[in-house]
């Protein structure tokens, strides 16, 4: 079936443009990119009038936790896929911090099978870097890569043994595999739930200095320089860490970095009176760090913007702040929360979609993230100026632990397509 979407404002992050146009979808790819709709509309099986809304490549959300296997009551591939579709996310790159961890080809194949059966969006799994994510022995990276792993990470666990990490990076380099690490000094950050400062002291909560992130990043970058491995820092959230990242890129190391939308739009004051929906890993930073991270994303120093989707059930969040589980869901709020930066004049739409779609696609070797002839027809149509108040109970995710509950947001998703098939709003046959 051939579909025409016309009367749209096309956001092309590759060209850096935002202009009126139309797209032709055929056989799962973009068959044509037009400046306007052709006169003969009857030759298309389906014609969609975008009514002047924005049309962009679908989001590629890197670092999503889907709680299968082990904690399906928190999130399944079906509910995560529906949440992604509702948020304009067409590809989710999943973390291996499940129970058990995704550290063997057999578990990876189970995950891939469940994802293909249940999720309406594309699912690309990452595998564990070390067995059981325990940091003692590296996994069979080659076998896992053959089974479909797109990258290797122990998620938010730091490999404390430098020799183990160096060996893993060396082996990954021989296979051109991408290694993703959580950059924190484990000794300084262990047990901390907030970023150090006056607010943490007033609340009497154990805190960690931003220098812990800088120390962790510097160690990992030194090992990358030694091994020449492909490397991605999953969360760079402090001003103190940015110079080390800039120096590594200047030296030509194969390095990229990401940041979550929560760390770009919230700060440590949002914790307020011990609001556990704002307990994250890493913890929310001070306003100066948030501003620095926004500037780094705008300049391209930080490459990827993600949700760091981490579902937690009510029982694990309704606890004292120190005891509560960390993390927040974000698949459905990634786009509208990110648009705060556009409405505030900090980013243009092409800049935003470079970080949300094009850069993660390029880093993972995917053909997505572009509005070009022959590219996959993975698209999001959204109303840039539509305001709404988020009600967490209307979200598609099984878990409802969002820090944006009750927040005023602007930018509603009106349609999501994966390989030319509309997956949101839900078609009758889904």
TrEMBL record:
One of its GO terms (cellular component) is cytoplasm. SUPFAM superfamilies: Composite domain of metallo-dependent hydrolases, Metallo-dependent hydrolases. It comes from the Bacteria. It holds the Pfam family Amidohydro_3. Keywords: Hydrolase, Pyrimidine biosynthesis, Zinc. The keyword Hydrolase applies. Residues 345-423 form the Amidohydrolase domain. The keyword RNA-binding does not apply. GO terms for molecular function: allantoinase activity; dihydroorotase activity; metal ion binding. Residues 52-237 form the Dihydroorotase catalytic domain. GO terms for biological process: purine nucleobase catabolic process; pyrimidine nucleotide biosynthetic process. This is Amidohydrolase family protein. The lineage of its organism: Bacteria, Pseudomonadati, Pseudomonadota, Alphaproteobacteria, Rhodobacterales.
């Amino acid at each position: 079936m051939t579909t025409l979407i016309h009367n749209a404002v096309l956001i092309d992050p590759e060209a850096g443009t935002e202009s009126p146009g139309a797209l032709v979808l055929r056989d799962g790819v973009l068959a044509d990119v037009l400046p306007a709709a052709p006169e003969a509309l009857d030759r298309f099986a389906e014609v969609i009038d975008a009514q002047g809304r924005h049309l962009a490549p679908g989001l590629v959300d890197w670092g999503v936790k889907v709680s299968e296997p082990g904690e399906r009551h928190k999130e399944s591939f079906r509910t995560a896929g529906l949440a992604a579709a509702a948020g304009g996310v067409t590809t989710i790159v999943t973390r291996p911090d499940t129970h058990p961890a995704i550290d063997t080809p057999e578990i990876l194949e189970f995950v891939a099978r469940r994802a293909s059966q249940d999720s309406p969006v594309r699912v690309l799994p990452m595998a564990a870097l070390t067995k059981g994510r325990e940091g003692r022995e590296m996994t069979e990276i080659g076998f896992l890569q053959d089974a479909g792993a797109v990258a290797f990470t122990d998620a938010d666990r730091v490999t404390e043994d430098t020799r183990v990490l160096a060996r893993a990076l060396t082996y990954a380099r021989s296979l051109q595999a991408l290694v993703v690490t959580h950059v924190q000094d484990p000794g300084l950050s262990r047990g901390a739930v907030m970023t150090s400062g006056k607010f943490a002291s007033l609340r009497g909560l154990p805190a960690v200095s931003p220098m812990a992130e800088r120390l962790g990043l510097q160690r990992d970058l030194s090992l990358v320089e030694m091994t020449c491995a492909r490397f991605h820092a999953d969360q760079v959230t402090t001003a103190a860490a940015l110079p080390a990242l800039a120096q590594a890129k200047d030296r030509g190391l194969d390095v990229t970095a990401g940041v979550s939308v929560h760390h770009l739009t919230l700060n440590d004051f949002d914790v307020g009176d011990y609001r556990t929906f704002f307990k994250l890993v890493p913890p929310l930073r001070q306003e100066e760090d948030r501003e620095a991270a926004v500037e780094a994303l705008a300049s391209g120093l930080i490459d990827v913007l993600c949700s760091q989707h981490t579902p937690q059930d009510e029982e694990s969040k309704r606890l004292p702040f120190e005891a509560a589980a960390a993390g927040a869901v974000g698949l459905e709020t990634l786009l509208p929360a990110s648009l705060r930066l556009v409405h505030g004049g900090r980013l243009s739409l092409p800049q935003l979609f470079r970080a949300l779609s094009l850069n993660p696609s390029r880093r993972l070797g995917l053909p997505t993230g572009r509005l070009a002839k022959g590219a996959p027809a993975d698209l999001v149509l959204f109303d840039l100026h539509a305001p709404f108040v988020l009600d967490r109970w209307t979200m598609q995710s099984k878990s409802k632990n969002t820090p944006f509950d009750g927040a005023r947001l602007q930018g509603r998703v009106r349609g999501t397509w994966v390989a030319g098939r509309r997956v949101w709003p839900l078609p009758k046959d889904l």
